[in-house]
Amino acid sequence: MRETQSRRDEGTADTTSLHERERGLLWHPYGALSDGSHFAVSGASGPRVDLVDREGRRLTALDAMSSWWSVVHGYRHPDIDEAVARQLESFSHVMFGGLTHAPAVGLAERLVAVTPAGLDHVFLADSGSVSVEVALKLAVQHQRALGRTRGRFLALRGAYHGDTTGAMSVCDPVTSMHADFNAVLTPQVFAPLPPGPHASDAELHEWCAAVDALCDRHGHELAGIIVEPLFQGAGGMRPYHVRALQHLRTRAGELGAVLIADEIATGFGRTGSAFASERAGITPDIMCVGKALTGGYMTLAAVLCTAEIAQVISDSSHRALMHGPTFMANPLACAAACASLDLLFDTSDGQPAWARSITRLSRGLRTHLAPAATLPGVADVRVVGGIGVIEMRERVDIGAVTATAAQHGVWLRPFGTNIYTMPPYIAADDDIERIATAMAAAAGGQP
Q: Of the residues 126, 163, 172, 262, which is catalytic?
């Protein structure tokens, strides 16, 4: 029976039946079991996905979300398809304990080459959240190896670092939807929201003074400081001032705490530089990357660290970073990631491909989103690299925004007060115009 059902789903079977079959069966992210509002996906290619609604209506929509910021090259990219298929001809998976393989080594070499200088050692993790867990463990292990019993972290209000236990503990304790789990979370230290990109010297001075006071009070407890560099993603789509990140880098060094840069959303060009840390002219002690790493083909993330961190761990009694997931360095994921990085950092036209794409996307978003600033209820319109945001004064109706955008041939998934896009890097100029038009229509409550 299960085999028959599976085969029925493989082709172009009655996609509309999925809505009823999954209702009460599958949970979706932050969704109720009874929620039957989802679109069914029947295919995807390039920047577009083929969708079917509950009434059986079919539409093809631009994926303005890049499937939560990961499918930067679009769907079914021939280079990544070929890399995964080629790897399948050899082997799809082996344990990484006691074994190694070319896709993992090649990926580590590529990551060291493209990330900020000094991040020379790589740990491959299952997902973005797991990479944050590994980074926190690495920071604590580093302190233990130095004879210190530090185990807390300084994070930022508005932060979002993932949904696993350690990652939840360094998310904003009020706005990140994790308040129900406080009983199992380590209490961390939270600095105020960092000032925006255009903050005055007085505002920056006040914020730095508040950070200094926390560091003076808790420095002896802090294993590290963790930040999303220069742009807070799921915590509010907020850019912040470069001097705030530079100050955190300085304070981490003074305290003997490691600076962890969570570049899972900001990495690989999305904010306008290869990695957001580079815009501040800093190198973190530990960096997490993910999402666009495999071009959205499968789950994989990486943790990179400096030689100093690695040496302290190597000289400790454990000698190893104490983490080892079953699917660590999955060869298929590594092969996809190698192909994705080759595409992102291709310089055949004189500059990295990601830079050409982001320059073009940013220009289009600025042009076509600007009129939305005059709409009633709009608090702000902002563009950071390849990210466009219409911030509303009130929380948005997710269903209404999604439905309006779909009528314009665009797939959006807003949250909180934000209607936003992180389009695939391959999106054409007219695609960006359509996305901006759909966002403005949704913000204005228009069909």
A: 262
